[in-house]
Amino acid sequence: MSKKIKVYAPASMANISVGFDILGAAISPISGKMLGDCITIESAEKFHLSNKGAFAKKLPKDPKLNIVYQCWQRFCQEMDKEMPVAMTLEKNMPIGSGLGSSACSVVGALVALNEYFDKPFNENQLLYMMGELEGRISGSVHYDNIAPCYLGGMQLIIDEVGIISQSIPHFDQWYWVMAYPGIKVSTAEARAILPAQYKKQDCVAHGRYVGGFVHACYTQQPQLAAAMLYDNIAEPYRKKFLPNFDATQQSVKQLGALASGISGSGPTIYVVTDDLVIAQQVELWLKAHYLQNDEGFTHICKIDPQGARVI
Ligand SMILES: Nc1ncnc2c1ncn2[C@@H]1O[C@H](COP(=O)(O)OP(=O)(O)OP(=O)(O)O)[C@@H](O)[C@H]1O
Ligand SMILES: N[C@@H](CCO)C(=O)O
């Protein structure tokens, strides 16, 4: 019987407002729906990549520009031989959504290749390759979508002494309402508009917010954690790309949200609450007011503890 591997790689929200490029979490809808890309690998005489799924038509026309093809190429380079396989990308994630769409494809492809070829690479070697591939797309290496998508949970990026990322505690009782408005924001462009330098008081405040949030996670103080979810690095510059961002934040706060912010580089936003009824009310409000077209969607999510997995 010929071998076949299918891997699911979940959506993720990078930054979580307070940790620009250094915090991220994998997410799963509580409905049980899969929010992520799938990659299938089967044996073949010659390399072949096919795309399917709701957002396949949005992928680059040239197959060599598909990041999945580049993952295969990079994997073969590392193995020092060409290994023909048939890969299928199920592109379920909208591109430029702030939900780690390219990370889903990169992580899915490299985990599937590693599984298919009986795990020639360890976790760190794969993470380095994933970071490199993600960096080709967004213009700089950042692991805050890659690491949670691969490893699950909420990840703090360390990138020192051989440690790329470690998971930190989160709040099991929190619901994360995610709303993708259906419009595209390019990560590379959303990075290019950020200032090259920040004022000293902004750096101090940022250290206080991220330190306070991580401390609150470890000591399980949800009110403190929610109060620390403040973004003074990217949000002030990026919010112009999101539809009525300030008014949206105000409205969800009035509905009882604990906090809200931009997921990754946007335009998806996240809203946190510990109450399912409030989550449902927020979701209805966002559906009615934040979505801009038929491609937009909302999901009530929890943090996905598992990350990428063979299904
Ligand atoms: N398999 C793939 N999945 C997603 N994007 C891909 C893929 N292959 C190539 N690309 C290209 O990579 C770029 C991805 O853009 P960008 O980084 O803004 O999206 P993203 O990963 O969805 O962002 P975000 O992390 O905010 O969700 C696009 O130009 C897209 O055409
Ligand atoms: N940390 C990255 C995530 C991109 O999805 C950014 O905000 O640019």
From TrEMBL:
Instruction: Write out the similarity annotation.
Output: Belongs to the GHMP kinase family. Homoserine kinase subfamily.
| Signal peptide residues on this chain, from the entry's feature table | none
Q: Where is the GHMP kinase N-terminal domain?
A: 66-153
Query: Which reactions is this enzyme annotated as catalysing?
Result: L-homoserine + ATP = O-phospho-L-homoserine + ADP + H(+)
Annotated ranges, domain GHMP kinase C-terminal: 215-284
Pathway stated in the Swiss-Prot or TrEMBL entry = Amino-acid biosynthesis; L-threonine biosynthesis; L-threonine from L-aspartate: step 4/5
Establish whether keyword Metal-binding is in the entry: no
Q: Which Pfam families match?
A: GHMP_kinases_C, GHMP_kinases_N
Q: Name the major location.
A: cytoplasm
Alphabetically sorted, this entry's keywords are: Amino-acid biosynthesis, ATP-binding, Cytoplasm, Kinase, Nucleotide-binding, Threonine biosynthesis, Transferase
Its biological function?
A: Catalyzes the ATP-dependent phosphorylation of L-homoserine to L-homoserine phosphate.
Q: What is its EC number?
A: 2.7.1.39
The subcellular localization recorded is:
Cytoplasm
Protein name from the UniProt record:
Homoserine kinase
* GO molecular-function terms, A-Z: ATP binding; homoserine kinase activity
GO biological processes: threonine biosynthetic process
Query: Binding positions for ATP?
Result: P94, I95, G96, S97, G98, L99, G100, S101, S102, A103, C104
Organism from which the protein derives: Frischella perrara
Q: Among the entry's GO cellular component annotations, what is one? A: cytoplasm
